[in-house]
Amino acid sequence: MLPTPALIALQFLTRLPVRLPGMPEPEQIGRSLLWYPLVGVLLGGLLLALHGLLGETPALLQAAILLAVWVGLSGGLHLDGLADTADAWIGGHGDRQRTLEIMKDPRSGPIAVVVLLLVLLLKFAALVVLLGQGAWAGLLLAPSLGRALLPLLLLTTPYVRAGGLGAALAAHLPRQPLPWVLASHGLAMLLLGWSGLLALGAAALAFWLLRRAFLARLGGTTGDTAGALLELGECAVLLALALLV
Questions:
Q1: Which position has the higher pLDDT, 60 or 108?
Q2: Domain that holds residue 74
Q3: Residues 93, 98, 100, 104: is their CA dihedral positive or negative?
């Protein structure tokens, strides 16, 4: 039986059938952040298994199937955050309060649709290229590093929206063990050689650029911007591997 924080992380980050033993304590919600990188490794492992089952399926069709399952496993949660962030960033015209207000609107405007299409198209194209090179590294590295960026963001960036799960995570995140967990995860990625180093560099660059933008516009992060970071971080890793490996 997995500990409750691990179950919380699985329930939040995936659509896998997970049942919690009871209402979690705030401290358990915070400690679930320690498991985010491993949830990413699990998702990558499931994608690798599917890649193996698909065998000699043509690259275009296999990439489409892998991406569809990838989105399905996460329930599109982070794509929703990306869409809300894109709408708010353009519609907010540089104003912090207006940006936050638009981000709360559940409706998606044309900017959100365009950004979602572009990000999914870039992921799909990168997967097609990687399938011709041996896709296992990208399928493992992108989801695991993407989910490692979320606790890193909450650890280093103020959370600026009151209420919700994001606020509970930020308020109760385990500040002492979390840096060690993230550092260990990064070192483990380096065991994959050049692919791991390149993926870490791409994820770090995406993190630095987006965190700087979040601080400049909002003074911190929200749940939506965290979701946008995950999606764009995954995309950056896939593109880096497809272009440079």
A1: 60
A2: 35-243
A3: negative
CB atoms within 10 A of CB 21: 8
Long-range CB pairs of 64-70 (<8 Å, 24+ gap) are 64/124, 66/127, 66/135, 66/139, 67/120, 67/123, 67/124, 67/127, 70/43, 70/143
SS3 55: coil
Other CB atoms within 10 Å distance of the CB of residue 191: 7
Sequence letter at residue 2 = L
pLDDT tens-digit profile of 144-201? 999 999 999 999 999 998 776 678 888 889 999 999 999 999 999 998 899 999 999 9
Q: pLDDT for 208-227, tens place per residue?
A: 999 999 999 999 999 999 99
Of 143, 150, 165, which Cα lies nearest the Cα of 214? 150
Give pTM, 2 decimals.
Answer: 0.95
Q: 18: Cβ–Cβ under 8 A, 6 or more apart, which residues?
A: 7, 10, 11
Distance from C-alpha of 171 to C-alpha of 242, rounded to nearest angstrom:
38
Assign 221 to helix, strand or coil: strand
| 26 inside domain | no
The tally of domains found in the chain comes to 1
pLDDT at 22: 79
